Amino acid sequence: MKYACRTLLIFLWEFYGIMKKFALIVAGGNGTRMGAPISKQYLPIGRRPVLMHTLEKFHNTDPMIDLTLVIPEGDFVFWGKLCEEHAFSVPHHLVSGGRSRFQSVKNGLNSISDSQGIVAIHDGVRPFVSREVILESFLEAEKKGSAITVIPLKDSIRKLTDDGKSVFKERQYYRLVQTPQTFDLSKIKKAFEVQELAQFTDDATVYEHQGWQVHLISGNLENIKITTPEDLEYADFLIGKKSN
Ligand SMILES: Nc1ccn([C@@H]2O[C@H](COP(=O)(O)OP(=O)(O)OP(=O)(O)O)[C@@H](O)[C@H]2O)c(=O)n1
Ligand SMILES: C[C@](O)(CO)[C@H](O)COP(=O)(O)O
User: What HAMAP family does this protein map onto (predicted)?
Assistant: First the structure.
């Protein structure tokens, strides 16, 4: 069944995938919550830096995807050395990060000179996005203008109230939001021509600020955002599991 779905997706991708595809891998942060001596996007999982796994995931899904990596400008030399050390040959453009995720995405979008196409915006620290999710996000964004990956909640949830109590919430109405968040390039470029607002925790919120509805698609459970030391241990476990 899984194989049949994948074959169908690849067929649809080859048949309908006529727009130019871009992926913006944002890794301009410094991983405060990880608390490691180097930023988490460069930490090794399965002996190679997190970012190499993420870039490779997109490249191996389709080598025609034009890849841009956003990292702090001060890390360019360090990244170059890592690429040499690991003989990393996936082609990508480097762009300087900004003070916030919003600014990093904006810098990345501004670096793309094309005005037409589809762009997947993805956290550099989510190396476990599946090939199927990447393919579907491009297909759906081409049809609907956007494709935001989400997963259902497994636990019950409560909303904290200002009086120090809490109330039950019906979890079937909620989703956890992941990346990639994939868009029509011209629309997302226009959406990012605004002043940054506190509510812009991802790219979907920037897009819908224009009054446009976002289209949700299913993400994959393994696609965690490596944020804290426990996540790194889990990531190492997942990498080991995949190479066995
Ligand atoms: N100025 C920034 C801040 C974040 N990011 C990227 O956005 C993604 C999600 O952010 P997060 O997990 O919060 O990363 P950090 O900001 O590095 O982590 P922390 O909040 O713990 O400092 C990461 O790939 C991160 O590198 C970015 O490109 N530019
Ligand atoms: C974009 C994101 O990964 C979607 O879940 C998330 O909003 C990033 O949040 P952070 O505060 O930058 O970690």
Answer: IspD
User: Which residue, judged by its Cα, is nearest atom 6 of ligand 2?
Assistant: 202
% helix, strand, coil for the chain, step of 5: 40, 20, 35
Name the residue at shortest CA distance from atom 13 of ligand 2: 227
How many angstroms does the Cα of residue 15 sit away from the middle of ligand 2?
33
Q: Whose CA is closest to atom 27 on ligand 1?
A: 28
Mutate to test the pocket of ligand 2, among 54, 103, 202 (most ligand atoms within 8 A of CB): 202
Determine the Cα–Cα distance for residues 93 and 76; give it in Å rounded to an integer. 11
Among the listed residues 108, 89, 90, 70, the one whose alpha carbon sits nearest the alpha carbon of residue 185? 108
The pLDDT tens digits of the residues spanning 78-114 come to 999 999 999 999 999 999 999 999 999 999 999 999 9
- Domains in the chain: ranges and CATH: 16-243 (3.90.550.10)
